[in-house]
Specification:
The protein is an alpha+beta fold. Helices cover 41% and strands 18% of the residues. The strands form nine sheets. Strands 1, 2, 3, 4, 13, 15, 16, 17, 25, 26 and 33 form an eleven-stranded mixed sheet that branches. A seven-stranded mixed sheet has the order 14-21-22-23-18-19-20. The two termini are 39 Å apart.
């Protein structure tokens, strides 16, 4: 693929559909509201009144005050609120209540836009999840009702030692009021464990009661019921009232469930009335449903008193939107540009510290149960920035990765625009290349994404002739196609099954071996649940805090999920299915305030991707003005102004050539203002007056001309925005790379006593912090002498060492022997030795740590015990080679000896030289310089052919000892039936040997490259 091509299609192709989002009310209403009287007149219109009643019942009630004598300040407050709502419902097409609606559009040869009359639109109302959860809470407080229900063990429950834990507690969507109580644990008693095992699948409450009473005969039924009710209240059990949020009609399902229960006829009758009124409201034309809406809200509040009992969306029935097929190429180029210009890092930077901790404790070859990993008592606890529960890790965010050259270039672009008083900078392929911080890899592009954009044209004819602009919404989009569609999948009017299938098939083609599992989650904030209700669209689900009621989807339990780390990224795997799992959602819930386990699952899915971002202005983002950036017909970033308290609002517009129409940006929302409109300017003035010393207002230019638009309906022009899904194009290399990833291993039967060794056990683990430049001298002069002294006293049986650079350069020494000798004699001797080294300026400090065996890395418990003997023999060899090289530097330097040693080790794993060559070629990443190889070639070849006399002495004996230990290890692996594992682990042993001898990094790469050159020459000679 041509990485430098910008205007041509790149990594992404458009799906053949998109979401149309348009305001229900025309822009003319906004345009014609220039005085307070106009505002009052606008809210006399019945459709506008109904929209206001659905959005803010309290403001709707305040309308009656305007016809009375009220204080000027209160009147002004009401008028300001009404004006804001009017602007919202006429100029901002983001779906919200009855303000804006949605439809699905496609592509044709010629563009088309047809809006129907207002009374054709279809309202879709459903109970707000805050109301639903409040109702469920009231129902679950009735013991007589609970006893008629089925219950199930909360899928988030897990065992940890003598505790049964729950990583988060929902509290019916009110857990944000009890942050300290968002996790829970119970003592692991036989009764609790039995109850949770029996309820692993849905079971009738009374059946479970009887089973427990039969198993534990000392408890009577009354006591058992109280015990189970307590488990329900504490959410270790959940009832079937908490159905999965992947159910398309949760309220209908709740109704169906309740009608079969006894003793709640009064409630079911009221709910049936609510259901009938909902169905009736759906079919009442816009503008004639205000009274029905308010009455329905009141009857629902009688059942569960919440501020907003209803959620309402609008389907733009009769709306036909088609974009010309010719626009697709430019939209795909827009996706390519916005992704390639992103300064984000691959993956999640705030997880880097957590990755390092994982590798330090578990290594690359060990997979750890998800829930254990996030538990701070048995695992690593909470990653940085995670809040529920919060942990000890901190994250110091670094500025987005940008080269100094890019920073300078961005500054130059902005300053040149200011100097020339230009509103726009036109970009070319060359300027885009200068804005690209680091050319990204195809493999790092997300599997799919969405971008929100507006298409500006004066008419349909202009659009068809190519006279248009594509404005990318600078703060909107998603990191997965379909997320913005999710909540609308609940409606009958938008049948999105085929569209979702297209997305899923495209994503699966890139990761054919993986399972895409939809995470179904009941949020801790009740109203957030409105976002997470979607139609189940994947074959697999992961459930958190909900009852499994959909038998069509296969559920992967949290207990079945394992986490591994390749070193570069985390991954998730199903233990039972032995396949990678990619957690996905079909909604836009923000991850900042969610439980750790949910956030971690979804962040794992983005570990291998670099996500797109709006134009990154670097240090210029604080500038009072930034120009529009346009590439051909694509507006990458609109012009932007920042107003601080120190600005002069009266002269600002003229000084900075500010256009008439602007968006006032408030967080992720924007309000369209006409600066020639006195009402609008007063809104801006009011916001400006509230600024403190360190605050500012952000304004951007509008993405369309409100006086001319191709989106013309029977009642006027409509503000319209499109959600474009993009799907990553096929890439065979990336698929192969994903298939060939090196996974870790999970050994559930390995006991802690065989894995973890504290100081005072049979292993003593010491860390000696020694600068790089002194490590080789330490090995040949000091370590060798110390070990000989300690061995002469039989203080240990075996020992080995390894070099590490993090957090500071140090050597890790591990001694194996009798615990009493290690503690009472070796430790004092180590302390005495360390003191001497410190006085000589060699050692900075000495510390002791817990030895965690890398059992998975070396093939199991028996295998790691054999591997430890290789480590010991290899350490003796490395120390000897250091000593030999210092005394015989003319015969061979350390690098040359290293090549000889590496070739010798390879023969233990690959007896055939051709196998050695092909394997080494697969792992070597560096080419040795011709000069460097030429200088050593003769000696390297003589060593490899064993023609040097001195290699048949002590070196041969120590190498033979190492060979024997490797052959013993091979026998263990073969006996365990894992012979193919040898090829994988050979690289590990080679890496550890080179680390002991000369260190890692470029030194290791250079040594392996020399070994490859020698091996190639020997193979050619062999013929």
């Amino acid at each position: 693929m041509n990485e430098t091509s910008w205007g041509n299609a790149g990594r992404y192709g458009l799906a053949d559909f998109y979401l149309v989002r348009a305001n229900v009310f025309p822009v003319e209403v906004w345009e014609n509201t220039v005085k307070a009287a106009d505002l009052y007149r606008a809210f006399e219109e019945k459709p506008v009144l109904e929209a206001l009643a659905a959005a803010s019942p309290s403001l709707y009630d305040s309308l009656s005050c305007l016809s009375q004598e009220i204080k000027p300040r209160k009147r002004s407050q009401i008028e300001n609120s009404l004006l804001r709502y009017l602007i919202r419902m006429t100029t901002r097409p983001t779906p919200y209540g009855l303000f804006a609606g949605v439809a699905v559009g496609g592509y044709r040869e010629q563009a088309a836009f047809q809006f129907s009359q207002l009374d054709s639109y279809q309202k879709h109302a459903r109970p707000d999840m805050e109301w639903t959860l409040r109702l469920i809470r009231e129902l679950e407080s009735r013991p007589e009702l609970i006893r008629q229900l089925r219950v199930q063990t909360n899928p988030a429950v897990y065992l940890a030692g003598n505790k049964i834990r729950l990583p988060y507690v929902n509290r019916y969507g009110r857990a944000e009021q009890h942050h300290a109580l968002m996790r829970s644990s119970l003592h692991r008693s036989q009764t609790v464990e039995f109850a949770l095992q029996e309820a692993g699948e849905p079971i009738a409450f009374e059946t479970l009661t009887e089973r427990i009473a039969a198993r534990f005969t000392q408890a009577n039924l009354k006591e058992v019921r109280r015990f189970l009710e307590d488990l329900l209240q504490r959410e270790y059990l959940i009832s079937e009232l908490r159905s999965s949020l992947s159910n398309k009609h949760p309220f209908t399902r709740l109704m169906d469930l309740l009608v079969s229960l006894e003793g709640i006829d009064e409630i079911t009758e009221k709910l049936a009335a609510v259901s009938r009124d909902l169905a009736s409201y759906h079919h009442i034309p816009m503008g004639t449903g205000t009274a029905t809406y308010l009455e329905l809200s009141k009857s629902m509040k009688d059942l569960a008193d919440v501020k907003h009992p209803l959620q309402v969306d609008v389907m733009l029935n009769g709306c036909e939107v088609a974009l010309p097929g010719s626009i697709k190429k430019e939209l795909e180029a827009a996706a390519e540009i916005i992704w390639r210009l992103s300064c984000r890092q691959v993956g999640n930077p705030h997880l880097q510290g957590f990755r390092n901790d994982f590798l330090e404790r578990y290594g690359r070859d060990r997979e750890v149960p998800l829930l254990e990993l996030l538990d701070d008592e048995v695992g690593l606890g909470s990653p940085a920035l995670y809040k529920f529960p919060a942990g000890h890790r901190e994250y110091d965010p670094k500025p987005a990765t940008q080269s100094r050259m890019r920073e300078t270039y961005v500054t130059t672009l902005a300053m040149q625009a200011v100097a020339k008083r230009q509103l726009e900078v036109e970009l070319t392929d060359d300027t885009l290349a200068n804005l690209e911080s680091v050319p990204p890899k195809f493999a790092h592009s997300p599997l799919s994404m969405e971008l929100y954009a507006s298409v500006e044209a004066q008419s349909v004819e202009a659009l068809n002739s190519g006279d248009y602009l594509i404005w990318l919404n600078e703060n909107s989009g998603s990191f997965g196609a379909g997320k913005s569609f999710g909540r609308f999948s609940l409606t009958e009017q938008l049948n999105l099954q085929e569209q979702f299938l297209q997305i899923h098939q495209a994503e699966q083609s890139h990761r054919p071996e993986a399972i895409f599992a939809e995470v179904i989650f009941l949020p801790c904030t009740d109203r957030d649940a409105n976002l997470t209700i979607t139609q189940a669209s994947r074959d697999f689900q992961i459930l958190l805090g909900v009852f499994h009621s959909d038998q069509d989807q296969r559920v992967i339990s949290l207990e079945d999920l394992l986490v591994g780390c390749t070193g570069e990224f985390f991954y998730l795997k199903s233990r039972s299915l032995n396949r990678e799992v990619i957690p996905v959602t079909n909604h836009m819930l923000n991850l900042v305030g969610v439980p750790n386990v949910y956030r971690f699952l979804l962040e794992l899915a983005t570990e291998r991707s670099k996500q797109w971002e709006p134009m990154n202005w670097g240090n210029m983002k604080q500038a009072p003005f930034l120009p529009r950036l346009r590439y051909k017909r694509i507006v990458i970033a609109p012009a932007q102004w920042r107003l601080s308290k120190f600005s002069n609002l009266q002269t600002w517009r003229e000084e900075w050539k500010v256009p008439r129409y602007l968006y006032l940006v408030e967080e992720d929302q924007r309000m369209m203002l006409d600066l020639d409109n006195e009402l609008h300017f007063a809104l801006l003035q009011n916001a400006f007056n509230k600024l403190t010393e360190h605050q500012y207002l952000t304004l951007t230019e509008c993405c369309y001309d409100p006086q001319g638009s191709w989106c013309q309906g029977p009642v006027g022009r409509h503000a319209t925005e499109f959600v474009f899904p993009f799907l990553k194009k096929a890439d065979a290399a990336a698929v192969t790379e994903a298939r060939e990833l090196r996974w870790g291993t999970y050994l559930p039967d390995c006991e802690i006593k065989d894995r973890t060794f504290f100081t005072g056990s049979e292993w003593l683990y010491a860390k000696l912090y020694i600068p790089h430049r002194q490590q080789n001298e330490f090995l040949r002069k000091h370590l060798k002498a110390f070990c000989e002294q300690a061995l002469s006293k039989a203080l240990f049986e075996e020992f080995y060492y390894i070099r590490f650079d993090e957090p500071e350069p140090h050597l890790r020494l591990r001694f194996h022997g009798q615990s009493s000798l290690l503690v009472h004699q070796l430790i004092p001797l180590l302390a005495q030795w360390a003191s001497t080294l410190q006085q000589k300026g060699i050692l900075l400090r000495l510390s002791y740590d817990t030895y965690e065996r890398e059992i998975e890395r070396f093939g199991g418990l028996e295998a790691v015990e054999s591997a430890e003997k290789i480590f010991a023999a290899d350490s003796r060899l490395a120390v000897f080679l250091h000593d030999f090289s210092s005394k015989n530097s003319k015969s061979a330097d350390l690098e040359t000896l290293g090549v000889f040693s590496v070739l010798d080790m390879m023969t233990c794993f690959f007896p055939d030289r051709n196998d050695q060559l092909s394997w080494l070629e697969s792992i070597v990443t560096m080419k040795p310089s011709r000069e460097g190889y030429a200088k050593k070639r003769s000696q390297l070849i003589r060593l490899a052919e064993e023609k040097e006399d001195w290699i048949h002495g002590e070196i041969a004996r120590i190498m033979e000892e190492r060979r024997n230990k490797i052959f013993d290890y091979r026998k263990v692996i073969v006996r365990l039936g894992n012979e193919t594992f040898l090829e994988r682990v050979a690289e590990t042993f080679l890496h550890l040997h080179i680390n002991r001898l000369i260190g890692g990094g470029d030194k290791e790469a250079q040594l392996l490259a020399l070994a490859l050159r020698v091996l190639r020459e020997l193979t050619l000679r062999q013929g």
